């Protein structure tokens, strides 16, 4: 199975880059992993709603350019469905059984994901109603995908 993480924003902090590398290394046993890091647009202080929409649309265009036609797109969205780790594991496994072997998880920038990307998404997933920094969220997503594979394989990790 191919897992692609499409994420807006650069990871500047070494501890986050180290965590991403660790989970990427662990995941190599289970899937082919590709991380696509896109530049985020600068949001001015006190940006108007119109400016924020334009920024999200510009980031969305960049996201849509890297999404391939054969990808099953999972958008990380506060309005998405919340799953337990076991349910996420089952969901990823079921996608593979259905022949969806190219899964792309999309993490938007600080303003979220554009409507165009949400419309392209096959599924919308929410980890929590809380807001997380998108740099930290990349680590959280990788950890949960790793956990999902461990659960699928019946391997000890998930408690």
Automatic annotation (TrEMBL):
Q: Which UniProt keywords apply?
A: Cytoplasm, Methyltransferase, rRNA processing, S-adenosyl-L-methionine, Transferase
Location in the cell reads: Cytoplasm
Swiss-Prot/TrEMBL catalytic activity? pseudouridine(1915) in 23S rRNA + S-adenosyl-L-methionine = N(3)-methylpseudouridine(1915) in 23S rRNA + S-adenosyl-L-homocysteine + H(+)
GO cellular component terms, semicolon-separated: cytoplasm
- Top EC group: transferase
Q: Which residues does S-adenosyl-L-methionine bind? A: 108, 127-132
Q: What is its main location?
A: cytoplasm
Q: Which InterPro entries match?
A: Alpha/beta_knot_MTases, RlmH-like, tRNA_m1G_MTases_N
The record's EC number reads: 2.1.1.177
Pfam family of this protein, just one? Answer: SPOUT_MTase
Q: What is a GO molecular function of this protein?
A: rRNA (pseudouridine-N3-)-methyltransferase activity
Domain of life assignment: Bacteria
On assembly, the entry states: Homodimer.
Q: What does this protein do?
A: Specifically methylates the pseudouridine at position 1915 (m3Psi1915) in 23S rRNA.
Q: Which family does it belong to?
A: Belongs to the RNA methyltransferase RlmH family.
Cross-referenced PANTHER family = METHYLTRANSFERASE, RIBOSOMAL RNA LARGE SUBUNIT METHYLTRANSFERASE H
Q: What is this protein called?
A: Ribosomal RNA large subunit methyltransferase H
Q: What organism, scientifically named, is this protein from? A: Clostridium polyendosporum
Name of the gene encoding the protein in the UniProt record: rlmH
């Amino acid at each position: 199975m191919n897992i692609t993480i499409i994420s807006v924003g650069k990871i500047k902090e070494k501890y986050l880059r180290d965590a991403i590398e660790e989970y990427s290394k662990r995941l190599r046993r289970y899937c082919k992993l590709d991380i696509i890091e896109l530049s985020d647009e600068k949001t001015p202080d006190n940006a108007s709603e119109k400016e924020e929409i334009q920024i999200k649309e510009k980031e969305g265009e960049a996201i849509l350019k890297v999404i391939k036609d054969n990808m099953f797109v999972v958008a990380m969205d506060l309005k998405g469905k919340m799953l337990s780790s076991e349910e996420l594991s089952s969901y990823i496994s079921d996608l593979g059984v259905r022949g969806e072997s190219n899964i792309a998880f999309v993490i938007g920038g600080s303003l979220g994901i554009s409507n165009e990307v949400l419309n392209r998404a096959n599924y919308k997933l929410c980890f929590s109603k809380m807001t997380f920094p998108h740099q930290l969220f990349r680590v959280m997503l990788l950890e949960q995908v790793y956990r999902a594979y461990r659960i699928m394989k019946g391997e000890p990790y998930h408690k």
